[in-house]
Specification:
mainly alpha; 80% helix
Length: 186
């Protein structure tokens, strides 16, 4: 029985019982005094039981709706996080490609390339991550130095990628070792 049908049935029963109660109170038909009081108590107790049952049914229904809403919001939140990660991946990929052409901007290139790897991994683009890592290794400037702070930041990004899991990232350990060996100055 659907909820609307149940509500209609309860409403019809309540109307019928109300009409009967009005008729008996107006003495339209005769019921002796003791039977009348018993009958009124029975009708009122039945109505109370029906109303309590209806409240319980409503609470259970509200809890199931709350669970559905919570699941829906969780799914939306997850999708929003994935969309945000995709956007970050595209932006960082574009910036790393721009700075890759600038040979004097070593830190900027590696910063954005590592961030690109991080966010592409979040969205599941492992082949793209491996391509970016291979390009980073092949274009690694062994003679260039970066500041100690910048090197620490690159290592921090690499540690974040490692903490998220590096399964599927073929040459990540090699890239990490190259960054650690990169020259630095204060």
């Amino acid at each position: 029985m659907t909820r609307d049908r149940l509500a209609l049935t309860i409403a019809v029963i309540a109307i019928i019982l109300s009409i009967v109660a009005i008729c008996t109170s107006l003495n339209s038909f005769s019921i002796d005094e003791t039977a009348y009081l018993g009958w009124v108590v029975a009708v009122l107790s039945t109505l109370v039981v029906v109303l309590i049952g209806w409240n319980i049914f409503t609470v259970i229904d509200v809890k199931s709706e709350q669970k559905k809403t919570s699941d829906y919001l969780t799914a939306i939140r997850h999708q929003a996080n994935m969309d945000r990660a995709k956007m970050y991946a595209k932006v960082y990929s574009s910036l790393s490609e721009f700075y890759r052409k600038e040979k004097s901007m070593v830190y900027e290139y590696y910063n954005f390339a590592l961030l690109s790897v991080r966010f592409n991994k979040v969205v599941g683009e492992i082949p793209l991550c491996n391509t970016v890592i291979s390009v980073m290794i092949s274009s690694f400037p062994s003679e260039k130095c970066i500041s100690t702070i910048n090197k620490a930041y690159l290592l921090q990004i690499a540690a974040t990628i490692r903490n998220d899991g590096i399964e599927g990232l073929a040459r990540f350990d090699e890239l990490h070792a190259m960054i650690m060996k990169m020259g630095s100055y204060d």
